[in-house]
Amino acid sequence: MRGVQLLFLLQLCTSCVLTLAVPRVPVPKRREVYGNGRIFDITHRVNAKMPTWGSRDGLGQFVWLVASMKNGSLVNASEMKLSAHTGTHIDAPSHNYEEYYEAGFDIDTLDLEVLNDNTQRILRLQSKITKSKTMIQRHYFLLLLLFTLLHSITASSSNAAYPTVDDDCSCGASSTDDDLLLFPERNEVYGNGRIIDISHRYVSDMPSWNSEEGIGMFIRLFESLKNGSIANFSGFKLSVHSGTHVDAPGHVYDHYYDAGFDVDTLDLEVLNGNKLRTQCCWSSTVIVPRESNITAEVMKSLEIPKGVRRVLFRTLNTDRKLMFKKEFDTSYVGFLEDGAKWLVENTDIKFVGEFSTP
Ligand SMILES: *[C@@H]1O[C@H](CO)[C@@H](O)[C@H](O)[C@H]1NC(C)=O
Ligand SMILES: *[C@@H]1O[C@H](CO)[C@@H](O)[C@H](O)[C@H]1NC(C)=O
Ligand SMILES: *[C@@H]1O[C@H](CO)[C@@H](O)[C@H](O)[C@H]1NC(C)=O
Ligand SMILES: *[C@@H]1O[C@H](CO)[C@@H](O)[C@H](O)[C@H]1NC(C)=O
Ligand SMILES: *[C@@H]1O[C@H](CO)[C@@H](O)[C@H](O)[C@H]1NC(C)=O
To answer: Which residues form the signal peptide (predicted)?
Structure first.
């Protein structure tokens, strides 16, 4: 059964990641600092008491268990419903600028080089007004795009809230230089390949577990400048298992669920860490044979060196463009039980996922 679950996990979405770094005694740790201060978790845990714009009651309930193992489901799966403006998040240019909204500038158009730049080593800022000292020292602030689903979720779908922009915009005779400037770029590669955006843009045709309909209409504009609001606010409702995401340990293990192991308990060093000087390698992308699922034999043949802790597999799922198929396809490839067992027993890998560039 474990094997089946593992298989299920990896296969569930063509670009989900799963940490295998699960401790024996289930006590969730919620650390904010990793790697001796090299990584800071600056995202707030989303919780019911978190403030929400214009409300005295806070966020309230935002996540519901919609499928439960206790009720015969293969896994526990939750659904969340909340404002795109909740907790630690990024505002899209379209949040306040009419013309950007109309042109489709959602957060998928933001520059990952700006968001993730880690070349700044020491930065001391001192406000001339208050003399209070803000110091940012020798830390790389890594913005966790993978993790903070909230960020990605403001991405547009082909619904009215975020009109799609014609990719081969032939902008017409009336177009001006300004119109051309407002063409949203959706890059996947930044900084000469130093940063690759492997998260898929949320669109209503994105596949959803066991559904023929895709994730559907998942985002709505609930406050609009046109109706007197000071900004446009969207809200979204979707399964926490949608698109590019990280599975929490509680997704498949009862005792982890009960002990509160949500994604906030995952090790950011494993997820984001860079290799240490003494180590041969930290992460790698592995091309998997196309004619097979990931079995023990396949794992062995890949010859992944000891020391590698993070692996993104590139599989047939990517070639088949499964993330672009609205109908859920059960024939995806993933780990078979013996493959997962082999990985645990013979490698240092703590994190697996699928490398599937959009
Ligand atoms: C499980 O089934 C019980 C009894 O039918 C029901 O009360 C409960 O809401 C169900 N829970 C989920 C998560 O489906
Ligand atoms: C606000 O939403 C309306 C749709 O009601 C849209 O036409 C407008 O461009 C949006 N404005 C901004 C600033 O996002
Ligand atoms: C704005 O107001 C119009 C007319 O009252 C209504 O039809 C529309 O749904 C409202 N839009 C939003 C986003 O509140
Ligand atoms: C599934 O959800 C139930 C609540 O219905 C919970 O008690 C159980 O621990 C969960 N199991 C897993 C594997 O997450
Ligand atoms: C992988 O396994 C799935 C389900 O078990 C199956 O449908 C699929 O054909 C297999 N893929 C390959 C390439 O063997």
So the answer is: 1-21
